[in-house]
Amino acid sequence: MVLRGETHHMQMETSHQTSVCSLMCVWLQVAMFDWLEKKAAAALYQSPPTATLNDALENFLKAEELNPGFSRTVRLYIAKCHKELGDISEATNWTKLALKIPTTNVRTFSIQ
């Protein structure tokens, strides 16, 4: 169950954007697995899910590129990726960009 490439052929049409963004949230969650979660996934799956913060960031940036301003949450996840990667300046920049999106464009996705 490798996540890399899952969104390769998906187009960001309005009807699919929510699904794609949800999938990207899964990428971020998998990328942030701690040691114990990785071991548990390896025990449960023949091929456990793998993803990195860079994978998640790349896909969130692609979503933003294909439809700028679609989701405040996507921009906040971009900021979160940058923060986790240690790039506080970019994280701050993306947070500010997220706050510029009108509330009528707010789409929410959650990571458990």
Automatic annotation (TrEMBL):
Its main location: cytoplasm. Pfam families: RMD1-3 (PF21033). It comes from the Eukaryota. It is a single-pass membrane protein. It is found in: Cytoplasm, Cytoskeleton, Spindle pole; Mitochondrion outer membrane; Nucleus. Keywords: Coiled coil, Cytoplasm, Cytoskeleton, Membrane, Mitochondrion, Mitochondrion outer membrane, Nucleus, Transmembrane, Transmembrane helix. PANTHER family: REGULATOR OF MICROTUBULE DYNAMICS PROTEIN, REGULATOR OF MICROTUBULE DYNAMICS PROTEIN 3. Belongs to the RMDN family. This is Regulator of microtubule dynamics protein 3. It comes from Ataeniobius toweri.
